[in-house]
Amino acid sequence: MSTSQTVTVRLARNRFLLDEEESHIEIDQELCRSTGTGKRLVAVCPAGVYTEREDGTIDAEYAACLECGTCLAVAAPGALRWHYPRGGFGVAFREG
Ligand code: SF4
Known about the structure:
About 30% of the residues lie in helices and about 20% in strands. With about 100 residues, it is α+β, with helices and mostly antiparallel strands. It has a single domain, classed as Alpha-Beta Plaits (2-Layer Sandwich). Strands 1-6 form a two-stranded antiparallel ribbon. A two-stranded antiparallel sheet has the order 2-5. A two-stranded antiparallel sheet has the order 3-4. It starts with a helix and ends with a strand. The model has no long low-confidence stretch (mean pLDDT about 95). Iron/sulfur cluster binds next to helix 4.
């Protein structure tokens, strides 16, 4: 089994409880674009939460977030608002 297959299998053991009323990730599109934050978010997120559209808009599929905090480390101040999901929501590791 390759390393990427191993990672995929291990990630599949996680369980995600989606908070459909509140996203724990908010993006300031203007700041993201002007500071280059968007491309960094796409590059560093291990869960592939961020994608960039052709027009440069960044989308966040927050349901897949592993709550690692890496995106906060690369985002310019104000470009990203991230907090842990509300109690009971988010990722539960190795539940499978
Ligand atoms: Fe991706 Fe980690 Fe940021 Fe979640 S906290 S969006 S998994 S980089």
